[in-house]
Design goal:
Catalytic activity: GTP + H2O = GDP + phosphate + H(+)
Structural class: alpha/beta
GO biological process, one term: SRP-dependent cotranslational protein targeting to membrane
Main location: membrane
Bound molecules: guanosine-5'-diphosphate
Number of helices: 11
Keywords: Cytoplasm, GTP-binding, Hydrolase, Nucleotide-binding, Ribonucleoprotein, RNA-binding, Signal recognition particle
Subcellular location: Cell inner membrane; Cytoplasm
Distance between the termini: 10 Å
Strand order of the largest sheet: 3-2-4-1-5-6-7-8
Length: about 300
């Protein structure tokens, strides 16, 4: 099973070492295991291929074949390469919120965890950085979503923009900016509408809001359990709206972290946070080491 990639590799090499000296072909056999494991972890084929190639170059240069513990050597090389590919920003958890009030735009598909993540980040900014945060829901098609954000706000002690019926998302965004300015807020977070699929209207709406407020950060929230779909969603959002970072949710589930690797490799965008549950504290700054460990098992 995938969870035991480390063991699996060691197993392969142990079998090989019993036969005597290791050849380059033996290393190749092991790297095939790495590739299969990555695919099982929902890493896309081109990304897995490139990754294995990079590992292969390092492995042949590091006298793995002469090592007495070649399995562990390869595991270490794989680990280091995973961290290398996953590493985005030096300080992914630091949001750009100078020039108060700073707008943060939250985008993503419905059900990805966008509203929850908005609340989690607002709470974090308030508690860790002492920021005054205002949250606003722009989901005019789903009154329940607007109420959900208001309820979260009450729970975590963060203000939400009062709901006014009949406004469009751009009007709400501008009202949030005015209110944030007048009220002395440091940050205002805009929770845009989500849909089950990306469509032209969703993109047009998010783009209009972006143009109206010029966000300091545009964070894309994606469900980490959806693997390749999450990567496709990210590519499209980034292409059409431009994102400054990604939040992977549901990383508390049994997803294997492969989405994180493809996400970085394909979109080039840094993963900033990971969601680890439904509670308002269940969010952490993205740490490449941790995800690498998870992919390796
Ligand atoms: P939205 O439609 O994108 O705004 O999604 P919501 O924020 O309403 O979240 C949808 C569901 O996913 C809710 O039941 C959340 O509690 C849950 N959820 C959000 N983030 C996480 C997470 O990181 N882990 C888990 N297990 N559940 C999450």
């Amino acid at each position: 099973m995938f969870e035991n990639l480390s063991e699996r590799l060691s197993g392969v090499f142990d079998r090989l070492t019993k036969q005597g000296a290791l050849s380059e072909d033996d290393v190749k056999t092991a790297l095939r295991e790495v590739r299969v494991a990555l695919l099982e972890a929902d890493v896309s084929l081109p990304v897995a291929r490139d990754f294995v190639k990079a590992v292969q170059e390092k492995a042949t240069g590091q006298a793995v074949t002469k090592s007495i513990t070649p399995g562990q050597q390869v595991v270490k090389i794989v680990h280091d390469e995973l961290v290398h590919v996953l590493t985005g920003e030096d300080d992914p958890g630091k949001l750009k919120i100078d020039n108060a009030p700073a707008p943060i735009l939250m985008v993503g598909l419905q059900g990805s965890g966008k509203t929850t993540t908005t609340g989690k980040l607002a709470k974090r900014l308030k508690e860790r950085e002492g920021k005054r945060v205002l949250m606003a829901s722009l989901d005019v098609n789903r009154p329940a979503a607007m109420e959900q954000l208001a309820i979260l706000g009450t729970q975590i002690g963060v203000d939400t923009l009062p709901i006014v019926k009949g406004e469009d998302p751009v009007q709400i965004a501008k009202r949030a900016r005015t209110q944030a300015g007048l009220g002395g807020y440091d940050v205002y977070m805009l929770d845009t509408a989500g849909r089950l699929h990306i469509d032209a209207e969703l993109i047009a709406q998010a783009a209009a809001v972006r143009d109206a407020v010029n966000p300091r950060e545009t964070l894309l929230v994606v469900d980490g359990l959806t693997g390749q779909v999450a990567v496709e969603v990210a590519e499209e959002f980034d292409d059409k709206i431009g994102v400054t970072g990604v939040v992977l949710t549901r990383m508390d589930g049994d997803g294997r972290g492969g989405a994180a690797l493809s996400m970085r490799a394909v979109t080039g965008k840094p993963i900033r946070f990971v969601g680890l549950g439904e509670k308002m504290d269940a969010i952490e700054t993205f740490e490449p080491e941790r995800i690498a460990g998870r992919i390796l098992g």
